[in-house]
Amino acid sequence: MQKIASGIYKLTFGTPEEITPVSVLKPDTCLEALNALDDHPLPFTREDIHFQPRQGSVLLELPLDPKEEVYGLGLQLKSFRQSGSKKKLRTNSDPSADLGDSHAPVPFYVSTAGYGVLVDTARYATFFCGGCKRVGSRQDLEQFKSAGTGKGHWEVKKGSGNMLIDIPAAEGVDVYIFCGKDMKDAVSRYNLFSGGGALPPMWGLGMMYRADWHADQEDVLQLARQIRDDEMPCDMFGLEPGWQTNAYSCTYVWDKSRFPDEKGLIRELNEMGYRLNLWEHAYVHPESPIFPELRPHSADSYVWDGLVPDFTQAEAREAFTGIHQPFIEAGLSGFKLDECDNGDYIGNWGFPDFARFPGGADGEQMHSLFGQLYQQTMLAPFKAADRRTYGQVRASHALAAPYPYVLYSDLYDHEDFVRGMATASFSGLLWSPEVRQTATREELLRRIGAVIFSPMAVLNCYMIPSPPWKQFDHDRNHAGEWLEDWPQLAQQCRKLMQFRMSLIPYLYATFGKYSKQGAPPIRPLVMDYPEDREVLDCFDQFMVGDDLMAAPVVYGNGDTREIYLPGGRWYEWLTGEWLDGGQWITRQVPEDEVPVYIKQGALIPWAEPVLCVRDHTVFNIEPVLYGAEAGECLLLCDDAVSYATISESLPFAKIKIAGEGIVSIEEQEQEKVSERYSIAGVKYVL
Q: What is the distance, to the nearest Å, from the Cα of residue 226 to the centroid of all Cα atoms in its chain?
């Protein structure tokens, strides 16, 4: 056994493979931050873990007490608590069933007992999360209970077996165990081991609008002006596949017939306060300038007649980043990295599992790691330019926390999308339940109401030429037929988006703490209240930072929802009432509202909403103190755009409120606070 850092242990069984997440991605572990934490022992001994080599696989058995509940295993859209489940972790573009297929399967689970386990494998491992009892095991001594069915079926307590992990093709594996005081602490240590959480530029926490994929340069500029005329908050403006000469596979070359002056486009968008984001994927078209250079450093199988670069190879990374360098030099803010998952199971696209890559990986291993390697490759030129980026990606895996890319899906069930916000947080992932096509005004508003509390607030309107607040119906939008009351709908959308903008200073400080301390910025209640059994299955309420709780309404569930208030006292935003915790309440929620609750004692730095966050935006802040006479909060006062400040100790400023509305800031912090924030008098909510 090897001790990696405070509360982190590595155990090796057999002979591990050379291609694994840790060996390939080489995380820049935050050792100083980890070793500043209290140490915790292993929850069980090495002798309690059974390792069994088998023909063509290895089997791990780790102790799992029946009282423990298990969460994690990456982005799981169909299930939340994993106790008793079986999950085969395969990268899949269409994870429509609850089998383990995912855009981001992660061989990491966390227990309510306060520890997490990373199985360092890129194989399609199968996790039996306590639902399988083995003959001769400790649980074998427990008595089975008859379900009393006519066919003699037996009912076993959910999660009453050990954790069994079947890893194909391997002869051994490394296991990392993260031990903390509670579940959130264990997840935080995993994220710090991965390199710390991603800190986006401040503008990345605003709104993103993705345009109609048929749009040309003039269409794009006209739409951008329309959004500004409608006074809708928007920071990021995304183009979909139509900007390239070929998109399936990609050339990474502007289509001059539709975008004759791309530098002028970027310049005009920047002048309006937008940051341009471009869609692409990693499969390289024969007409791409880098095709000949990449050919010897790519897989032995094509995808859409394009090369699949082996991003474990320096030559492949250099060629790929080389063709993207001019975009970054022209002022592009980021990329949407699409199609880097796999469609072997539904749709039959992607490289096969038997594909071979020059660096030694086979197709199965590369499917697990391809999204991560793609992110790593595309992040490098932004870091070299010392300019933070914030983008989207459709596949990820283990050790993802430091990568500033947010997951999304072409699936669209709203309950699944909300659930993804909860499950992603257990495994160092960021997820956006982005808004796409909607059938009704209520659906549009409910979906916006959820996305404004996610890591990236995206309206992906790639199917319609004009904004959905003017017409959400696809055919009528294309026909230019606006809703008669579209100004009213626009105001409802604006209200929700402005709520997001009012949270940016709070969210930015929360992401700063994620970067240096590892706690997920948006997380389900069970991570903060693991002893409260009422929250074990609560996937649709979230802590946003340490002091806010959001409970978005899932579209299709009507306008009434039940909300659980954990222990303590909570201020209800919609009613202005104080409520005791430890109870369920029922609320009827208007379609343009989201239930929000604020902890007693919280000091929230509410900001006056802006249309966009420019490099030198100064936020007008009104600190509001809830249910107390004194309190404090943090503001992050770096330049909000560079990587240089992230590598250092982040310049947090502590804002203190004493009696009689006195705002106190340390003298040495006052200048840096004033460069980004203008603080008005404090408001008390008692």
A: 30
